[in-house]
Amino acid sequence: MHFFLGISSNYSDDQPYSWTFPPFHPKSEIYKDSKVCITKDNPFPQSNLVCPVETKLQPDGTLPDIESTYEAIQFLQRTRLSGIPFFLAVGFHKPHIPLKYPKHFKKFHPLDKVLLPNQRRKPPGLPIVAWNPWTDLREREDVKELNISFPFGVIKDKQARLIIQSYYAAVSYVDDLIGLILKEIIHLQLDKTTVIGLIGDHGWSLGEHGEWSKYSNFDIATRVPLILKIPGLSDRNLKINDYNTVDVPVELVDLFPTLVDATGLQSIRQCGSKSKTTKLCTEGKSLLPLIMNALNNGTKKEERYFALSQYPRPGEYPTLKPNSDKPKLKEIKIMGCSIRTERFRYTEWCGFQNFSINWRDTKACELYDHYLDPMENLNLSEDKIYFEIRKELSNMLRLQWNTY
User: Fold this and answer.
1) Helices in 223-377 by DSSP H: which ranges?
2) How many CA atoms lie within 13 A of 272 on its CB side?
């Protein structure tokens, strides 16, 4: 099992509360940001954003995600022999920056096939507070060399294609590692009895709106893969390489209660307003009813589904200090709260203090109609035609935040 180090796990890996055994950490992880990137233009090792490498020439002759993969395979082999039910979580770093990956994966994404987004500048109706100036990329040496103006400068086409190519290559690299684990599950004959889930923790802008990285409430940064294989259910009546899809917004907090139900354990109750005093509860909801409905061709009337997200800012204008993309808790003055329904995304940027959102102190709003504008380039929050829709979404947004 792989887990993020540091504050996100309370400097403890959430151990022993979340895991039976101490989580695995790849030894080569200490070289994550080391200066190992060499380009044609610069033969000296750098700490670059774009960093295809020869794996055997890396420190320890490997990469962290490769180490995690083989640790997971060995865990499956040991567990198969014991016959004991298990929960295994495997976390991959890529395509997290730096975009360091075995260089042969570039061949799957030729530069002349890499497409750039249509809208590569800040949309006219985008509130400045919503802007993500991608400060994490600007810290990398190869991006620094481009001398791009802060905060609204645009990466030129040539360099943009190189970044996108490496992002895709890093994804292909991880896809290959996931394939090795799935192949082992089949080899060990665990595929008929094992629930498998594949998720991402966030999306990543690749030049859309002129932005890069993940520090926004746009769909491109908040929408993630959520793929479930439930033996005897999700694969019912399917041909090889076929799949069922459920096209409604759900949340990653729904994964926990879904896995509990899918494995036949006792369902987890909703937290509600007593989450701080309840020993075991969930703020998500099981997705099994949605899956069953899809298998029955949608004959059962569905409840309304939506997804929430939020992102903080230290102020209304992008700054390097404090960091607009990664403000510390004491620096947060504005919170962007967003709700995504099947058709719309609505966001309010409001004053924030003492862990509370001041809904009366609204700095800016965004409203995107995905039927007309799936890439979220046209902010309709001031359009009179959408007045009632904005009002309804605003009420839904505030109600949900106040519930928790």
Assistant:
1) 255-262, 288-295
2) 6
